[in-house]
From TrEMBL:
Cofactor: Mg(2+)
Phylogenetic placement of the source organism: Bacteria, Pseudomonadati, Pseudomonadota, Alphaproteobacteria, Rhodospirillales
Pfam families to which the protein is assigned, alphabetical: IMS, IMS_C, IMS_HHH
Family listed: Belongs to the DNA polymerase type-Y family.
Limits of the UmuC domain: 19-199
Catalytic reactions of this protein: DNA(n) + a 2'-deoxyribonucleoside 5'-triphosphate = DNA(n+1) + diphosphate
Originating species: Ferrovibrio xuzhouensis
Function, as annotated: Poorly processive, error-prone DNA polymerase involved in untargeted mutagenesis. Copies undamaged DNA at stalled replication forks, which arise in vivo from mismatched or misaligned primer ends. These misaligned primers can be extended by PolIV. Exhibits no 3'-5' exonuclease (proofreading) activity. May be involved in translesional synthesis, in conjunction with the beta clamp from PolIII.
InterPro entries (UniProt xref): DNA/RNA_pol_sf, DNA_pol_Y-fam_lit_finger_sf, DNA_pol_Y-fam_little_finger, DNA_polymerase-Y, DNApol_IV, PolY_HhH_motif, Rev_trsase/Diguanyl_cyclase, UmuC
Protein name: DNA polymerase IV
PANTHER family, A to Z: DNA POLYMERASE KAPPA, DNA REPAIR POLYMERASE UMUC / TRANSFERASE FAMILY MEMBER
Length: 373
């Protein structure tokens, strides 16, 4: 979002855009329940049931017990002893996600994916010429259910921030509209911890400053928010008024792609650590191939038994061109970590500095083109 000038504040008139935020309901867990009738109606967690496992997704039946994504598996089992753990099948989730994106593309080219299971759509001027964003959302949700057997929820509003908030209002399998007249008042009554873009640490800091709701946030002036929250303070100032001018960006490229694994037993040997890294590298490179992206910086993440964490990175002039190159760089970074005094409980790899394959090919061709000229 562009920063407003102090002397000429942004007008508080809402944008005329029509934005839909579509969010699949308990996506990973719902896919598993769809494909395995024995899981339907039961509390399901996608993830590892091991002592150090983590819940990647929880069904609504599991959520009633307080089970949530990113929760340690042992904690989830304490909350719900009947919890059924299922190993994730990311290839299946990606295939279903592609089906959903194909439906979106029939309505608008302005699609900004946030993850496999959610996206923003700008339907202000849509491919079907439909005047109502609410009707478009209803139709998309029905099409998704017919094509995949899964339910989706939707939020409809005049900007991205409010559309995201709205999609949580009638979950699962519902939708909600926040109109321009409702926007500022809707935000005013919400706890700041529910705002997309305000995490637990920031919410706690706001609480310490006496900011508990959107209304409290709106009472603070721009100078105060910038002083305490830096550039983010400008964003908080405007969203507290229901204003968000960020466009839906169909060309949004993620900054990094990574994967990690926590082990049931600590690793002390470099060969064992390298064996555990190979499937992680394979997963990252499969994503790069499927998405047509490449990256220039490889980062190795190591967490030890005492929870101390380190990272080691290496950047290259040209993007990493193959799985073998990614593996070689990662192996070099790993060798620099050993010998270790403490066992390793987690290893992860991230590839960043991403760009499309077309950009990479253009960069590689540029020197040859200059020579020909």
């Amino acid at each position: 979002m562009s920063e407003p000038a102090e002397t000429s504040p942004q007008p508080e008139a809402p944008s005329p855009r029509k934005i839909i935020h579509v969010d699949m309901d308990a996506f990973y867990a719902s896919v598993e329940q769809r494909d395995n009738p024995d899981l339907r109606g039961r509390p399901v967690a996608v993830g590892g049931a091991r002592e150090r496992g983590v819940v990647a997704a929880a069904s609504y039946e599991a959520r009633t017990f307080g089970v949530r994504s990113a929760m340690a598996s042992v904690t989830a089992l304490r909350k719900c002893p009947e919890l059924v753990f299922v190993k994730p099948r990311f290839d299946v989730y990606k295939a279903v996600s592609r089906q959903i994106r194909e439906i979106f593309a029939e309505y608008t080219p302005l699609i900004e994916p946030l993850s496999l299971d959610e996206a923003y759509l700008d339907v202000t001027e849509n491919l079907k010429g439909m005047p109502s964003a609410s009707i478009i959302a209803e139709e998309i949700r029905a099409r998704i259910r017919d094509a995949t057997g899964l339910t989706a929820s939707a939020g409809i509003s005049y900007n991205k921030f409010l559309a995201k908030l709205a999609s949580d209002e009638n979950k699962p399998n519902g939708q909600f509209v926040i109109t321009p007249r409702m926007g500022a008042d809707f935000v005013a009554g919400l706890p700041v911890g529910k705002f997309h873009g305000i995490g637990p640490a920031t919410a706690a800091k706001m609480q310490g400053l006496g900011i508990a709701t959107g209304s409290d946030l709106r009472e603070r002036d721009l100078d105060f928010l910038r002083r305490h929250f830096g550039k983010s303070g400008t964003f908080y100032y405007w969203i507290s008024r229901g204003i968000d001018e960020r466009p839906v960006r169909p060309d949004r490229i993620r900054k990094s792609v990574g994967a990690e694994n926590t082990f049931g037993a600590d690793l002390h040997d470099v060969d064992a650590a390298w064996a555990e890294l190979q499937p992680i590298i394979g997963k990252i490179w499969s994503y790069c191939e499927a998405s047509g992206i490449r990256g220039r910086t490889v980062t190795l993440k190591v967490k030890f038994a005492d929870f101390r964490q380190i990272t080691r990175s290496r950047s290259t002039a040209q993007p990493v061109a193959s799985a073998a190159e990614l593996a070689g760089t990662t192996q070099d970074l790993l060798a620099g970590v050993f010998p270790v005094r403490k066992g390793i409980r987690l290893l992860g790899v991230t590839l960043s500095g991403l760009e499309s394959r077309q950009e990479t090919q253009a960069d590689e061709a540029a020197p040859q083109l200059r020579l020909l000229l």
